[in-house]
Structure formats: C-alpha cells, structure tokens
Give the backbone structure.
Amino acid sequence: MDRQRVRTGTDETQAATPAALLETMMLIRAYELKLPEIGIKMVCTSVGQEASAAGVVHALAAEDLILTNHRSAGHLIARGADPGRMLAEVMGKSTGYCKGKSGTLHISVKDLGIVLTSTIVGGELSLAPGVALSQQQLERPGIVACFFGDGAATEGVFHESLNLAAKWNLPILYICENNQWQAYVHRRETMLTDHISTWAAKYGIESLTVDGNDVTAVHAAARVAADKVRTARKPFFLETYTFRMHGHMEADDLSYVDREELAAWAAKDPIQRQTERIVREGLLSAEDVAQMETRVRSTIESAVAFAGSSPYPELSELTTEIYA
Amino acid sequence: MPNVSVQEAISQALTEEMRRDPRVLIFGEGVATKRYDMVKEFGAQRVRNTPLAEGIIAGTAAGAAATGLRPVVDLLFSPFLCFAMEEIVNSAGKLRYISGGQFSFPMVAMALTGAGWGVGAQHNQNNEAWFVHSPGLKVVMPSTPADFKGLLKAAIRDENPVLFFTDIALAFESGEIPAGGEIVPLGKAAVRREGTDVTLISYAKTVHSCMKAAERLAEREISAQVIDLRTLKPLDEETILNAARKTGRIIVVHEASRMCGVGAEVASIVAEKAFASLKAPVKRLTGPDAPAPASFPLEQAFVPQPDAIVEAAVQLVEYGQTVAVRNLPDVAVAK
C-alpha cells in the first residue's frame, strides 16, 4: 500500500476515495489480527471499529494534530504510520516509533502529528485543550482531533475538558468512539443514556452521532465536523456509535459478552459493508478487492519481518530521555 | 539591593520572563483576577483565569508545553495537587520517556504549602517528596525572596516540568534581591552559613529556623554550617557530601513528615558515600506523620523549631564524648 497516498488523501478539500477508506480499514484489521497470531495478546485492538478510525482520520488535514489512547492502531495506520515500526514498538524493539519505551499502549508519532498518546483513560481529554491552546496561541492553522471512548466519558476530566474547550473556543474535534465496552463493563451498566453526544450540548458544543460501522457516513460526518472546527475555531463533538468486537485485550475470551448482541454487530462489519458497496456500485471489481487484500497481506508480512529482525534497545537506554 | 517581598519577587520573575519570551503564559484559579497588572501588560490571552478544576489546568499546561508554549500554572494549595497528579505525574513526568524523547514539557506548576496560616490539612500538606519520587519532574522550594525570583526564572526557562512550592510562612516575608534579573540555577544548594562542627541541612521555612539555631549554637561555641537545598530534585549531592566530609555531623530539618521524606534521601546519600567522615549518626528533625492541624499552637508544634535543632546539634557534638547518647526527640516541639 502506498503510505504517502493515504497521507495526502487527507487533504481537507478532497474526500478520500471509497477504495482508500476500504484499504485503510483492511490494513488496520490485518495488522490487529496479526498480533495474537504471532503471540502478542496483551494488546487492545479496535477490531470492528475500523470505520471510525479510517473515516475520521482521512477527514483531517496534514497540519492537524491527533491525540489518541490505548486502542490506537487504527488511528495510527489511517494517518500513515508504518505497521513495521508500530509492530516493532509493540515488541519493544529499538526501531519502534518510541524506541521500545512505549510498547503497545501509548504510541506517539510526532512527525505524523500523533501527539501525547496516553493510556490513562481520559488522559487524552486532559491534554487536548493544551494542544489546542498552542494551536490558537501560536496561530497555527491545524485543528486537534481527540479520540476517546465511552469509558473516558465517565471520567471527571472529560467534563473539565469539554467545559474549558467550549469556554476558550479551542479548535478541538472530540471523537467519542462509543464502542459499548469500558474494559470489562458494558456501557449500559455505567450510564443512563445511550449516547455521549447529548452531553456535549450541555457544554455548548455542537454534536453529531454517526453510524460508526459505516465508513462512508463517518467520513462525511467527520469532514463536516472538521470543517466546522477549522472555520469556527471552536470545538465540535462527533460520536461514532460502534462495537468492540474483541475483548478489552486480545487475551480476553469475551465470555462475558452477550452472543446475540455480538452477532448483531458482526452483521454490521464495516469492512464487509464497504466492500459490498464498492463492488455493487462498480467502483472496484471482486478481483480488485482481492488484489487489495493481497497488497495488505504483503504489507503486514513485511512489517512482521521488519519488527522481528529489529534489535532490542541497548540497556543504556533505560535511563535516557527522562529529562530534556 | 532593593528589599522586596516573596510575592513581589514571584511577580517580577513572571513579568520578566513573559517579557523575554512570548511563549510563556500563566493560568489558574484567579490568576488574572489577582495579577491584573499582568493582564494589562500581556493581554488576556497570556494571563488567564480558569475553572476551579486542577486536573484540566495541569493537563492543559502539559498539552501546551509539549506543543510549543511554556505555561506556568497556579494550583493554589498543595493538597489540590491531588486532583492534578494524573496530569503532572503520568503525562508531564512520563510522556517524554514513553515517547522515546519526542516531547518535552517546559512547564511550571506552583502551589502554596506549609504551616503558618492555620488553614488545616486540606490546604496544607508538605507533599513535595511525592514529586521528588516521580520520574521526569523537578522540584523547587525556595527560602528567600532572591531565590524565589531566581529559581522561578530558572524553572520557567527549564525544558522540564518543575513543581514550584511556596512555603506559606514565607509568602509575605521580605528580603534583599539583586536589582538585575539574576537566575538561580536549579539543582544547586546554597551554603547559608559556614561552620565546622555540625551541618544543618534544610529547605523552605526551616532554613530560617536553622539560621536561628546556628546563632544560638555559636553562643555555646558550636560552629554550625547551614545548607539550603533550594532544589529538591535534582538534589545537590555534591554540596551535601562536602558538608558531611567537612563537619562529620549532619542534621536534616524539614517540615514534611519523616518517612520517605527528603531527609531520608539526604541521610542515605551521606551514609552511602561519606560514611567514613561521620562522627555521629545522621539526625532528622521533621514534622510528625500527622495531618497538619489548624490550631496555632498545634501548627507551631508541627514545625521543627530552633530550640529542638540546638538540642539535637549539641547532642551530636557530644556524641562519643558521653557514655551513652540519649534518644533524641523525633518531633520538635515548640518551646
């Protein structure tokens, strides 16, 4: 897959093509499914949520900044991160984006505008206003996209973040990936409402909920949302309503998940939906899709080879980069 | 040299640094209300009031610091730092390392602490050691107006997150400060008084107690050296060890509680690296492991006082000259 093409496909004036959205989702899925296959199970995947990552990130401009969380592979890949360097980071190798000091949980890639990834649920929400304040104060054009889940919305700092962003007119696109699961607890056990977007209105922030398993819908909504933040220079709240198809982490057997609910969401698989749409509309042939799958597989195999053959950090790295 | 209060010294440092560097800004609860002259000079964008929510204040500072600004935040009283621990410890302190050095966090978080105003335990806790124990942070706690100014300027120019504690009892004290914009480097202790028999190591308000104790000791022909640590992290190990090798008798004095406090670290450094120089055990005089009381006499009893320091110093000097050493009091009580 041509990484550079994905990156430039995020031009704010131009929508990503349906095929680019599909290929991004395929690559995210292939990357995340590869992890347990090669024995990496202490990792939080976004299987089933790929449309949210692909649709939103492709709606951002190159100068925009992204804050994400422990379930970040989709956001990273959609932004054009190299799966090889991501996997190397997950494996604790020196060629990883954070030199192996992050591991899977908090991968940042400053060069791609993916900043300050925090695994503390709500951490991204606490940092986003400051990043947006820099954009505002230093008169930079980019907006700030902050990805979090329904679990983070129950943290106190969620409310502090929205309130401050609204009051200070900070250019933040909040993206709540409402995937129904907060670690091992279903969302319905933790709140009275189905949607987080309704909360945003109370802080004076315009909001929208979109089918998070429909990449076309997510992308269209995210383009509108990002444009609003960019032009109005104030926050917008986008909720992508979706479902976490795997466990809190890969080592989790999902024994606590309602089978019927899982099956209902499996029927709404975003990759399958987009593939069917593209073929139905004649944008790609079945053969084109098969070629895409082959390309993605090859990218992931290269990534595994790169990460596997990469060295671990020198032990002297233990106490470097603590202070600037 | 002009005589200025600690409050004025802090204001001067902030103003001078904001004039020098347009990336410096200050925000917090009541900052713009209390520093209206700074709002007038620098504008409402750089001097901001915030909601009364320490978590988002500190988080906003960390996010801004990592992306090009140099924020100073006022979090008022040190126990309120509990609401900001996530952002200071997990974000500002760790995200540089975690990211493989991709980000830095040039920010200062200010808080008041210590006995003196009778504000009680939820507005007063000497929790500076918590931050000393957390990676990626620096911790400053000055004792003189000149140091408040010079260390705050250094903290603002530092590329790392700095906790800047103001001892409540010193907030309105006055003293001479150099007329220029002298920087006091982080990580350098100050020898406040030279002496040869015993070294009193302290920081913040108890430095002044040590100075009084040293005067009284001089009357008894005991020569006490007084060291003001000023910066608790990085700790000035060299000055501590030089003192241990010079006098061989060390008393560490601070208001924070004893266990795992800064005094424990000083004592360990001396034991590990200057053991052969010691003529007596290292002694700590600290506040008790108790919440800070509001009642004036209890609050004063909480703080190590000069008389107790004198008594401890005399006993260390007599150590080995008497048959047995009495157990020294753990907690200094006002007399």
